[in-house]
Write a structure and sequence with these properties.
The structure holds 2 protein chains of 2 kinds. Chain A is mostly helical. Chain A has one domain (about 15-100). Chain A has helices at about 15-40, 40-45, 55-100. In chain A, α1 (about 15-40) packs antiparallel against α3. Chain B is an all-alpha fold. Chain B is about 80% helix and about 0% strand. In chain B, α4 (about 55-70) packs antiparallel against α5 and α4 packs parallel to α15 (about 260-295). The chains are: A mainly alpha, B mainly alpha. The interface between A and B is large, with 50 and 54 residues.
């Protein structure tokens, strides 16, 4: 399966590669967490610090929620930058065209 | 029923009607009605997205679930929080760039328009119907409990207000009612979280220890348990929670209300910030309730069951923490939430009927705006009456499966077709329709044969299919069918000139 980059779909913002990688990272982490819940619940029940009540279940669960937000911010920052760069290139080209 | 709760309730009705009146004066054409004029800012759209995601189920339902099942309930909050990021990674800015009012605009762009619009509208309406029935039945039961109004009157009241917002104020009213509600809900949630944490001296480990000693399951309540009993259902649920949001028409519709792709993208950053914080905080509500409600005779009956059912846990918690003032505020927020979410669903359904089916399929785009607007309003009234009738028909029945069914259908029909139509140029019209339809039918069929309907609704002893939800089968099946039919069709088309 090839992912298309026809001009109509080419976005100056987030590229397909950027969006698909972020999706892969988040779903990979989340599905791994779900697999731990299903196949190794005793690992998640263990406390993060010996004797503490904060366990790996909550640590990794909050990690999934946090990762989703961090990736969202990262995606938006990267896509906004690409968009700015594309606009800057375009206005530079048109300025050169005008100078000629 | 205390006067304050009734006062808050009336204030919310008055405020939302004032918003509707203002929005109606500014709703002149289809762009205003479907997309709020396309001038919603990132922050506003972020709040509206948060409002759509944080339904009454997210607040009352998740708190009750964590109260009853501890970490097994929190797994739902974790899963729901991954939905909105997926929307921005894959869809948000493409929707804004490629579409105008509905996601069918996007899927029909490079494919045969008429069949794609019909598919998009039918799949949207099926998802919306299940979501709407679950919301409105829940709404009727909740309002009956909170305000002592009869169920049928409560459902009719919610339905009438919802018709009024959408019909007169369109997307502008729906968005602003959602923004007001999101602010109320985030403020209310923050207040409850602070009041709970105060009881534990702002020490999270004291809260966890307290929950472990107050719950019947002891320290086991802080770790996952159910997933190990049915690992495939756990993975299936994870897929539904993660990719379902990206197929919900009333969420996708929000990206047509912002001016450009950047605003679409940035609005999800705001939305995710609010939604993730709220979902993370549901652990504080639920675990706090385990400690605070235990041994309180005003919340837990002599039989050990929560008075009014587990959906009332958050309401009891608010009352114990902040007396009648908090009870009134939280009840009013719950009511506002229901109104705002059903209004969004109804608008998404009306757009599918008037924009996709009427204007584009029946009249092939040869329609004047005033006429399309009129049809949207008629569709709104029809959908509203349909929701009221079904709400009353399903009174007292178990409708819990309907939300998970809506998510399963969304990620097995609308989501695969939308993603493939944007990212894979090999997709053909037949492939899209075959895949989306088979995904939809598989999600519905397997849910009927599964534990949540075959056992809990029809009362059979054992389910035919034990997978619940069916996403682990239905979602890959949809993608595979889209791919297979498209590839076979293209190969056939290439072979044809040689044969001739």
């Amino acid at each position: 399966m090839t992912f298309q980059t026809t001009p109509q779909h080419a976005s100056p913002g987030g590229s397909a590669a950027l969006g698909l990688s972020a999706t892969a990272i988040l779903s990979g982490f989340y599905l791994a967490f779900t697999a731990l819940c299903a196949f190794a619940p005793e690992l998640l029940a263990a406390p993060v610090l010996p004797g503490g009540s904060f366990n790996w279940a909550f640590a990794l669960g909050l990690g999934v929620i946090g990762l989703g937000f961090v990736l969202t911010v990262g995606y938006a920052v990267a896509a906004n930058r690409r968009e700015d760069a594309a606009f800057a290139r375009r206005s530079l080209l048109s300025a050169e065209g005008a100078a000629r | 029923m205390n006067m304050l709760a009734i006062g808050c309730f009336l204030a919310i009705v008055a405020l939302s009607l004032a918003i509707t009146w203002w929005a109606a004066r500014n709703t002149k054409g289809t762009n205003d009605f479907y997309a709020a004029g396309g001038n919603v800012t990132s922050l506003q759209n972020g709040l509206a997205l948060a409002g759509d995601a944080l339904s009454a189920g997210a607040f009352l339902g998740l708190t009750g679930l964590i109260f009853a099942r501890g970490f097994d309930g929190y797994i739902y909050a974790i899963g729901y929080s991954t939905g909105m990021p997926i929307v921005v990674f894959l869809l948000a800015e493409r929707l804004r760039q490629l579409g105008k009012f509905t996601f069918s605009d996007v899927v029909s762009l490079n494919l045969d328009e008429t069949p794609m619009r019909i598919f998009g509208a039918v799949a949207s309406l099926v998802v919306i119907a299940f979501y709407l029935i679950a919301q409105i039945v829940g709404a009727g039961a909740l309002i009956e409990l909170l305000f002592g109004i009869d169920f049928k009157v409560a459902v009719t009241l919610v339905g009438a207000l919802m018709i009024c917002y959408v019909m007169f104020g369109g997307m502008m009213a729906t968005t602003w009612v959602q923004i007001v509600k999101a602010c109320l809900m985030l403020a209310g949630g923050a207040l409850i979280a602070v009041l709970v944490l105060q009881r534990f001296g702002f020490d999270l480990s004291a809260l966890l220890k307290g929950a472990a000693s107050a719950h019947a399951r002891g320290a086991g309540v802080l770790a996952p348990e159910a997933a190990s009993r049915s690992p495939f259902s756990a993975l299936s649920l994870a897929l539904a929670l993660m990719f379902g949001t990206a197929g919900l028409p009333h969420i996708l519709m929000r990206f047509f209300t912002v001016p450009d792709a950047r605003a679409a993208r940035n609005s999800v950053v705001w939305g995710t910030a609010f939604i993730s914080t709220f979902y993370a905080a549901t652990a504080i509500f639920g675990l706090g309730a385990i400690v605070i409600l235990s041994g309180d005779a005003s919340a837990v009956g002599a039989d050990g069951k929560v008075i009014g059912g587990v959906n009332m846990v958050a309401i009891h918690l608010a009352r114990i923490l902040g007396g009648d003032v908090m009870l009134g505020l939280v009840s009013a927020v719950a009511f506002a939430t229901i109104l705002a979410v059903v209004a969004g669903l109804t608008l998404a359904g009306a757009s599918a009927v008037s924009h996709d089916l009427y204007a584009r399929v029946v009249l092939k785009g040869r329609v004047d705006e005033a006429r399309e607007l009129k049809i949207s309003r008629m569709a709104t009234v029809a959908l509203g009456l349909f929701a009221i009738a079904l709400g009353i028909a399903f009174q007292g029945q178990n409708v819990a499966y309907m939300i998970s069914l809506a998510f399963a259908i969304a990620c097995s029909s609308t989501f695969p077709v939308l993603v493939l139509s944007i990212y894979w140029r090999g997709l053909t019209t037949r492939g899209a329709i075959a895949g989306g339809s088979i995904g939809l039918l598989a999600a519905v069929g397997l849910t009927i044969l599964g534990p949540s309907m075959w056992v809990k609704v029809f009362g059979f002893a054992a389910p035919v299919v034990s997978l619940d939800p069916p996403t682990l089968i239905s979602m890959p099946l949809a993608f595979l069918t889209c791919w297979l039919v498209s590839v076979v069709e293209r190969r056939g088309a290439r072979a044809l000139p040689d044969a001739a």
